[in-house]
Amino acid sequence: MNPLQHAAVFLVETGFSLYILLLMLRFILQMVHADFYNPLSAFVVKLTNNPLLRLRKLIPSLCKIDSALVLLLFGFTFLKVTLNFGLMYHKIPSIHGLLILTVGDLTTLVIHIFFFAVLLRVMLSWISPMRYNPMLGILDYLTDPLLIPAKRYIPHIGGFDVSPIPVMVGLQLLSILIASPIIQFGLSLA
Hints:
78% of the residues lie in helices and 0% in strands. By secondary structure, the protein is an all-alpha fold.
């Protein structure tokens, strides 16, 4: 790949990935019923609201799932995967491969969001354990569904909460056992 192609792939990957990250954060925050008056949540909502409000006029929610947001997430990811594939391999891949690559990309993103949310929560608990800031509130919403069950089964060891360790190991295993094979299968079809 020449430098110009490499730069184009980088720009497409970065631009789309940042917006897809915001869309996925909004979806996950909706699913965990996060406080949308939190400044961080309000920031995510403000940046993703414009296309979403237009799409919601056409697509209704389905069983408490924001169908318009799911479609927007899938569409942007599909477009990112298609553009990157075209820029890197100079050919148009099969639609089946692109769809599976899109699912793999979204699966990887969800796992990474939860992994880094747990890691960030642990790091912030060491730095300022008794202070509140808006990011800690959002991290609590994101990580509590994973950490609360782990805390029930894993006792504190020497005064330290080690429950994030098996959660992070489990998330990495999910990435290796689920997300990576989906991406490999998508690449083989594309």
